[in-house]
Amino acid sequence: MSHNKPAFAITLDDQDITSKIYPRLVSLTLTEARENAVDELNITIDDSDGRVAIPRKGVKITLQLGWEHSGMVDKGSFVVDEVEHEGAPDMLVLRARSAEMAKPVRTRKDRSFDKKTVADIVGQIAKDNGLTPKVSQSLQSKIIDHIDQTNESDINFLNRLGKRFDAVATVKKDALLFLPIDEGSNSKGESLPTITLERRDGDKHRYHTASRDAYSGVRAQWHDPNDAKEKSELIGEDDNPKRLRHTYPNQEAAEQAAKAEMNRVKRGKATLQFTLALGRPDITPMMGVRIPSLKAPIGDTDWIIVKTTHSVTAQGFTTQLELETRKGQEEKDAGAVEESEQK
């Protein structure tokens, strides 16, 4: 049986350079992350004979990644924003970010939104950037009384807004997505699958959980205009609550923010790193994962992917997953208490 070989296809400035890079490739690493919305591609090329030209910054790269026996997955377009040449031995290093993030969506702006729904806000920002808005149905009609975008990029602003609803904003294939973290969807609005892995699929894993200094709840402050006093909403228990710094304009906004932060606290109580011995380019952040062959409670937990790191070297093609627990995993153990109180 022939040994399975990693496969990739790369274009640079619309020119296929796969055959030129293949014998010179030292490493190729693609990192896809949920939180910062920017996919990063790093390519290191052997230039010991001095025959590799240094590309200009701003040039576009496309990448397909997979295996010779099963085909490749389109991983998108990237724009080179860093170039290094080092030696000896001489190496050329290219660092690129997803092409969608090179658009004005990362330009800092100042503006305000009043009495707008989430769908209105995301729709306006998508229109400004020539993108198609994709907003979860569960979030579309949420009303924002007032929010400021001050010297802040559109994508950072939307991710800050998303923290009120435990949601995340990202750009994929010319679509601006605004989705709850646990409602993983692709750029077509289709739900991402939950995949099942086995321990034998992985080279190694690392599970971590700790109760030391764990927050028992979240408290968010809000201003009550009726009596000109600050009040607060508590989600969870009051033993060791996390206090949000922002003061919200009303009780509903404070409650939403506290609930969203409590979900993040719960997910972060347990984390898992799992490295696949044979890379899976089809696996992306926000997919659900189960690994039932790992011992309890790891194998009993529903996980969600925070970050994927695909790596191709002379040793092969691997994929490292960084995961956290899905929302609600500990809800039966953690009580939810909501209260208003004067400060």
UniProtKB/TrEMBL annotation:
InterPro entries: Phage_Baseplate_Hub. Residues 224-242 have a biased composition (Basic and acidic residues). Residues 224-244, 323-343 are annotated as: Disordered. This is Phage late control D family protein. It comes from Undibacterium umbellatum.
